[in-house]
Write a structure and sequence with these properties.
The complex is a heterodimer of chains A (about 230) and B (about 475). By secondary structure, chain A is α/β, with parallel strands linked by helices. Chain A contains 8 helices and 11 strands. Chain A is globular. Chain B has helices spanning about 10-15, 40-45, 50-60, 70-85, 105-110, 110-125, 135-145, 155-160, 170-180, 185-190, 195-200, 200-210, 245-260, 295-305, 345-355, 370-375, and strands at about 5-10, 25-30, 35, 65, 90-95, 95-100, 130-135, 230-240, 265-275, 280-290, 315-320, 325, 360-365, 375, 395-405, 410-420, 430-440, 445-450, 455-460. The chains are: A alpha/beta (about 230), B alpha+beta (about 475).
């Protein structure tokens, strides 16, 4: 009887049990082996996803790019308080329309309000934000509710030191940079238990061969001696 | 026949003060005489027509306000603007509103349905109305005065039964008519018309003809003003910005009605908040796109106002809208998604609180120099991308100096160079060779050597 009452919540993906198949909407992570580590086979599409890392520049943005290029629609994506200026030409090379990208630089004390507005807006598909001042559990809970309300995916990049603290975010992962890629550990997600660490290798094949636009006379082997 | 609705507002003078009078003993007075008082004052024994001193004797806590004809006029204009949504012929007449409803009654069903609509709408606007219908404004006004609301087929019969005493003419004229033997309006019309015209003052004759619907008094029809200019004043100064929430809601509702009636939208609002020390706080608000929805007008206003810290209590608020744009009706597209609609409101909310520079879009300019080609701007300008080698995710503005050798700074050259020679036209020439490097065996960097100074710079990061 109780299960029947809760069934709509289970079906809507708002409630889950420890080891059940969830019916939540997901986005392809862009890494097949990482998809297998998620109970829904991808990043949850309407949830707050905590990325706990000390590598602010590399791994979180690689993950965001990988899922954004595979899941595009008419809605916008956003970057809030990025650590550096994003490169427009890279967005275009990844097939992302820069006109559908918002970049926000907001004061630290306004970031939670700003993210809540963005996450609850139906015109935003996915956003990534870099936390500088730690959010309170209440703020994190409000962000999760805003994600559900606006059907928005929010990657929140936080310091690795928050790993040991409880959080209302339904998805929590840690990321660590390695020489050959980065290591990701999903230690909280709906519908299943924590998963062992997974190494995502860097895709550096394009570095090993010269770009056609580059002149042959300027290859590394020929010019390195000049320096 | 033409049918008119006549609306009076029992709390007109109190409402004109822009104050909540439901929980207060308040009286409006003019030349020492009370003109109108709140329900609570009435329950304390204060009555309209009483002298002010008598009122204060009966109710020592009575708050008194001087009658303000300008405030009354402004409120009647606001109410006319509200009534304009029910008929295009609305007139401010006899301290009330006269609405021509011959066609509107078909739109709303019948007169009783129209009555319900008007009453419900007035309740939602928080003002009381009394109304009746008639073949002329005078007939409807007489019904309102007597508290009658006859059906259309009974208008003439009801008028003929009314006592001659209720006529809105000077008392000596009433006395004269009674001396002639007229007790009811029906008695008056039973006498031959020529005899009445010969014996009765012309104004009285015309008035009774108007009451019977046989004469039409010329009315000046209301037209919505070309600019929106409305204010609310507060009896006591408001000390908290939170207390402005209701007045802002009311003003934006009215502004929304005004814009919709004119089939217009606006993107520029100007708020003025009057402080107790006579200073005025100006608050211009520019919206991302023209709107006419009340919530779209109120949300950015409220966010901006939350940041306001008034130096003294606020005694009034005013909204000006001058710049309007003609709006086109929304396209009925089956495939329009909900997320297409809230984008502009999101931008308005963010810029209202964080400033117009907080949100930017990546742009690409037609310039070979990466720092000029890749910019963040409030307006999206994206030129097509030529065939370029891979670009990094992040750019450093300005680039970071690496010294004379990249290896010494921890960068091992992997691929390159990409030559960029440009900028001769704007006196900022760039002659560089870009390389992709590996930084400390972990991260992929984008570095370049300036060919003039031979120094190395970190321009961005791939990973």
């Amino acid at each position: 009887m109780k299960t029947n009452i809760l069934r709509p919540l289970f079906d809507a993906g708002k409630l889950w049990q420890g080891s059940t198949e969830t019916a939540i909407e997901v986005t392809d992570t862009g890494f097949p082996e990482l998809n297998q580590h998620f109970s829904g086979h991808g990043w949850p599409a309407h949830m707050l996803i905590e990325i706990l890392t000390d590598d602010l520049l590399s791994a979180p943005m690689q993950c965001a790019f990988a899922t954004w290029t595979r899941q595009q629609d008419a809605r916008w994506i956003a970057l809030a308080n990025p650590p550096l200026s994003p490169c427009t030409e890279r967005f275009m090379q990844e097939g992302i329309d820069p006109q559908k990208v918002d970049v926000l630089n907001v004061p630290d004390d306004q970031l939670a309000w700003c993210l809540e507005q963005l996450a609850s807006a139906q015109s935003i598909r996915s956003l990534i934000a870099w936390e500088r001042e730690p959010f309170t559990p209440t703020q994190l809970r409000r962000l999760q509710l805003a994600c559900q309300r606006g059907q928005t995916q929010l990657f929140l990049v936080r310091s690795l030191k928050h790993h040991i603290q409880a959080s209302p975010a339904p998805v929590r992962v840690t990321m660590q940079s390695l020489s050959n890629g980065f290591e990701i550990t999903i230690f909280k997600q709906p519908g299943t238990n924590a998963r062992p660490p997974l190494v995502i290798p860097s895709e550096l094949h394009w570095i090993t061969k010269a770009h056609p636009t580059q002149r042959k006379t300027s290859m590394l082997q020929e010019t390195v001696g000049l320096h | 026949m033409v049918i008119y609705a006549y609306l009076t507002f029992p709390d007109l003078l109190l409402d004109a003060q822009g104050i909540s009078h439901h929980d207060e003993c308040i009286a409006i007075h003019h030349q020492g005489q009370i003109m109108q008082c709140s329900d609570k004052a009435v329950s304390a024994g204060v009555m309209p027509g009483m002298t002010l001193s008598m009122g204060l004797t009966l109710c020592p806590k009575l708050l008194t306000q001087t009658y303000q004809p300008d405030a009354e006029r402004r409120l009647l204009h606001r109410l006319a603007l509200w009534a304009y949504q029910y008929s295009h012929q609305v007139a401010i007449w006899n301290k009330g509103l006269c609405i021509e409803v011959s066609k509107s009654k078909f739109l709303f069903g019948d007169l009783s349905a129209l009555t319900q609509t008007l009453k419900q709408a007035s309740m939602s606007q928080h003002f009381r109305i009394r109304l009746a219908f008639g073949y002329s404004p005078e007939m409807a006004a007489l019904f309102v005065k007597e508290g009658l609301r006859p059906k259309e087929h009974a208008f003439e019969k009801t008028v003929s039964r009314l006592s001659i005493d209720v006529a809105d003419i000077p008392a000596e004229q009433i006395k004269r008519l009674k001396n002639m033997g007229f007790r009811t309006i029906g008695d008056y019309f039973s006498a031959p018309s020529r005899a009445r015209q010969a014996r009765i003052h012309q104004n009285t004759f015309l008035y009774f003809n108007a009451v019977a619907g046989r004469h039409q008094t010329p009315l000046t029809w209301f037209t919505p003003p070309p600019v929106f200019h409305q204010s609310l004043e507060f009896l006591r100064g408001l000390e908290s910005v939170d207390m402005l929430r209701f007045p802002i809601h009311r003003l934006t509702q009215d502004a929304s009605h005004w814009l919709k009636q004119r089939l217009c939208t606006t993107s520029h609002m100007r708020w003025e908040i009057t402080l107790e020390d006579r200073q005025i706080e100006h608050l211009p608000i520019v919206l991302n796109s023209p709107v006419n929805d009340a919530s779209a007008l109120a949300d950015p206003t409220w966010i901006r106002l939350e940041q306001l810290q008034p130096r003294s209590p606020m005694t009034g608020i005013r909204l000006h809208i001058q710049q309007v744009h003609q709006s086109s009706p929304p396209k009925q597209d089956l495939f329009v998604k909900a997320h297409d609609t809230d984008r502009d409101q999101l931008i308005d909310r963010l810029t209202a609180r964080l400033g117009s520079e907080c949100i930017k879009t990546p742009c690409r300019q037609q310039d070979p120099r990466p720092e000029y080609a890749n910019q963040l701007d409030t307006r999206a300008t994206v030129y097509p991308l030529p065939h370029l080698p891979p670009r990094p995710i992040w750019l450093l503005h300005p680039p970071e100096a690496l010294g004379a050798s990249p290896e010494n700074a921890g960068h091992r050259l992997l691929q390159g160079p990409e030559r960029i020679e440009s900028g001769w036209w704007d006196f900022e020439p760039a002659c560089r060779r870009y390389w992709i490097g590996l930084f400390q065996q972990q991260r992929i960097s984008w570095i370049y050597q300036d060919q003039h100074s031979k120094s190395w710079w970190l321009a961005g990061w791939f990973t």
